[in-house]
Amino acid sequence: MPTKKTSTSSKVAKKAPTKKVAMSKVSSKKVAIKKVSNKNDDGLPLSVVIRKRIEAENARFHANDNIAAYIKPGELERLVEEVAEKMQAVLESLVIDTQNDHNTQNTSRRVAKMYVQEVFNGRYVEQPALTKFPNVSRLNELMIIGPITVRSACSHHLCPIMGRIWIGVLPSKESALIGLSKYSRLTEWVMCRPQIQEEAVVELADMLERKIKPIGVAVVMDADHFCMQWRGVKDRDSKMINSVMRGAFLKDSNLRREFLALIDRK
Ligand SMILES: [Zn+2]
For position 248, what pLDDT does the model report? Predict the structure, then answer.
């Protein structure tokens, strides 16, 4: 299917410069196709098609799961269209006059793009590539990376979570090390999903353990939850601090103390 589409559009592009009238005809046709394209041939919304692929493999698709393996090239743009349509229905149910209120005319599409392409993008794209380096100098000293900026949202209300993360790694002589910027990329990938802070830090620690195979790994996250500041108790100063200690960080209280003393959470 996708290959067929590409070949049609390349034909259109080749034809375009020769006939101006034909061009405008084609482009209006294209818009019409785009409007219904978030439904599949059998009339199913794209989200249902993707969901069926996931269910066929008995995989999980919770808010904080990555489902990139079930999405084909070109489908994310179509998913934005579907989300925009449903977001428009939400605005209508909120009795907002999106036709006459110029501020909300395109809100549904903006929100759809923001969810799929930005703030929840970590659900839909593959894990960033990690270059691994062998531990040639056989480093086995404590490494601390941070603070890494965290932008996430709670799974309960989709309210922003803004915070910082520090990662401590005690590599073994056999560990594969990853470049410093990769810690930020991995963190962003995990956090750009609707999350629960307690689960997010565990997920990040698990992933780092699998990738680096260190003697110990520690993750500390310190965040503002708009869930408590914007709504609910409206407590502007409440924060949540979580830590996960694995391996040497769990067993060796001196190492743990050194890590906690070195990160500057002020
Ligand atoms: Zn919440």
Answer: 96
Q: How far is the CA of 112 from the centre of ligand 1 (A)?
A: 20
Q: What pLDDT, in 10s, does the model give residues 108-156?
A: 999 999 999 999 999 999 999 988 888 777 778 899 999 999 999 999 9
Output the CA 17–ligand 1 centroid distance in Å.
53
CA of 27 to the centre of ligand 1 (A): 43
Please give the Cα distance from 135 to 49 (Å, whole number): 44
Question: Which domains, ranges and CATH numbers included, belong to the chain?
Answer: 37-124 (1.10.286), 132-262 (3.30.1130.10)
Q: Report whether 177 contacts 133 (CB < 8 A).
A: yes
Distance 154 CA to ligand 1 centre (A): 5
Separation of CA 88 and ligand 1 centre (Å): 23
pLDDT (0 to 100) of residue 231: 87
CB atoms within 10 A of CB 134: 10
